[in-house]
Amino acid sequence: MDKLNRIHSIDVIRGFAILGIAFANILPLSTPILYDSFPSSLWTSHHDRIVEKLLFIFAEGNFYSLFAMLFGFSFMIFMDRTAAKGNNPYKLFSKRQIILLGIGILHAFFIWYGDILIVYAIFGFLLLPLYKAPKRIISMMIVIVLLPNFIILYNLIGYNYDSTDYLDYNYILSVIRNYHYGGRLLFLQNFYDWLNTYQPDNLPYLYMSIFPMFLIGVLVAKNKSILLKITAKHFIFWGIFGLIGTSIKLLPVLKPNSLLYLQAAEAIGNPLMSLFYGLSVLLIMHKFKVSLNLIGNIGRTSMSNYLLQNIIGFVIFKAFHLYGTLSPSKLIIISSIVAMFQIWLSYIWLLLFKQGPIESIWRRLTYLKMHRNKISISPSSQ
């Protein structure tokens, strides 16, 4: 697999992650599950409960972990390419992250509280000191950052709880009404949901779930043979990650009152499932000699597609007042339609342009001052 194909495989994995996020986000986009129990109190039919559980096992949290790993990989690619062009990679990456933070703030406050870009922008700065770090240091840091998770899991052994004890059904109904009402109430409810999601107590858990995946992506970029040469080890780890990851994600479905199982699913199950999915894409491309260009197009326009998914969700569930009214079995149909629409739209867009619209704006803003400086000195250089 040459350099061009290697980059393409990353685009395909990134595209797969974006399409997966369309299913992972559909419940929080459309229902107040932030304040609900698991299983949800909003639907009781057997097939809706099955869909909810399948989304939990195979979608929820898994694709954000995969996307975080790809962010770490992209960090290394960006730094290397910037340095190769003679520019300051630390300065440009910092500027790039500040712009990402701005995009995330606009998205989080005006579209959807579940935005992850703000977290990526802030935690991304922590990668800068590790750009030149050797692989053994990165490996040690992955273990160090993950270690508190196992201490937390140990302390949760035997600790059970009932999520319905914390359920306030009247408040859930008020959240639905606020989003239906629109205007100022919609904005305030969305902001309040963001504050609840990213309250200070949750930040250490976010760090322990996201930053190790950043580091794994950095490690893969530093050890490119993982992508260059497919061996029997890839198939072995693919089976291990899939079996253990699925088993751990299944535990809270079988016993939802166990806080240990819920935490294990987030801390261990999500990363393992993300690695399983990433390897699945690599192995499919290798085994069947397929390029999966249509999914790769999604990866090349990943930021635009991520934001578009949530804008579509905003229009459907908030503008058309469908928030809290659709069951999971109907919601996955919407996710499927959105995914197919994005595959088609990305294909058409890349026939006309080299980048997605948000990617283009992001790049232009990142290099804006540099381009101005080159223009200003060009007359004197002549």
What does the average pLDDT come to?
92
* Estimated share of beta-strand residues: under 5%
Number of strands: 0
Radius of gyration: 21 Å
SS-based class: mainly alpha
- General shape: globular
| Continuous helix count | 18
Helicity level, as a percent range?
Answer: over 70%
Write down the secondary-structure element order.
Answer: HHHHHHHHHHHHHHHHHH
How far apart are the termini?
Answer: 43 Å
- The poorly predicted ranges are 1-6, 375-382
Biggest sheet record? none
Task: Describe the structure in your own words.
Helix 1 crosses helix 14 (293-300), helix 7 runs antiparallel to helix 13 (259-288) and helix 12 (232-254) runs antiparallel to helix 13 (259-288). Helix content is 77%, strand content 0%. It starts with a helix and ends with a helix. The chain contains 18 helices and no strands. The longest helix is centred in the last third of the chain and has 30 residues, at 259-288. With 382 residues, the chain is mostly helical.
Structural key phrases:
single chain, 382 residues, mainly alpha, 18 helices, globular, disordered N terminus
Outline of this structure?
The chain is mainly alpha-helical and 382 residues long. Helices cover 77% and strands 0% of the residues.
